[in-house]
């Protein structure tokens, strides 16, 4: 059979995102102690442990956690590699965000459980939304965002990018995401772009951050990928 020409392959790439109903499935990353992270996410964030699996022949274990079942929610897929207790998180990955109706109460609870609060709750610099930042036991950052009730509390994945226009084009064309909004903050020298498959208060979105003049970030070795999918099965992913 003749191979598809590059032009045909590209045309298909632009067509298929229109035909299916995708969503964010899993954020896959590595942790140094699975039970420590499970305890932190369940006790501090209120996530549920959805499933665990051990793959001794490959020397790793996984745990899946989220705010609802995998069939309908974005979840984290933690990987523990036998004997590896720490990772380099790099600078390209920013944070995950969790929406909460009361960021002050959530922070109080996290602090009471011994969590590391790196930014006290209060209005966003140059904005009105109340936020806070906490670090999990491996150093992964979670932004806590105060907003009304939402079906998907695990609401953002923030990545830093060196060329916003190029990245927006990639997520639109290759993964069929919609550009939901952009925000420029010249006083703080950054621009944001929110992309996703539905509105921000309905589902998880990708937040791209461009810091003026910064064109490169390090990847580290801690993050694997975010999987996106038509409901049900993994069909795609992007690396972070
Ligand atoms: N230089 C920042 C730019 C992005 C940024 O500042 N984002 C806002 C949230 S949208 C933030 O972290 N604000 C901190 C604050 O309000 O204290 C970065 O790369 O993380």
From TrEMBL:
This is Lactoylglutathione lyase. The active site is at 143 (proton donor/acceptor). Catalyzes the conversion of hemimercaptal, formed from methylglyoxal and glutathione, to S-lactoylglutathione. Pathway: Secondary metabolite metabolism; methylglyoxal degradation; (R)-lactate from methylglyoxal: step 1/2. Pfam families: Glyoxalase. It catalyses: (R)-S-lactoylglutathione = methylglyoxal + glutathione. Belongs to the glyoxalase I family. The keyword Zinc applies. Zn(2+) binds at residues 77, 95, 143. PROSITE patterns: GLYOXALASE_I_1 (PS00934), GLYOXALASE_I_2 (PS00935), VOC (PS51819). Its cofactor is Zn(2+).
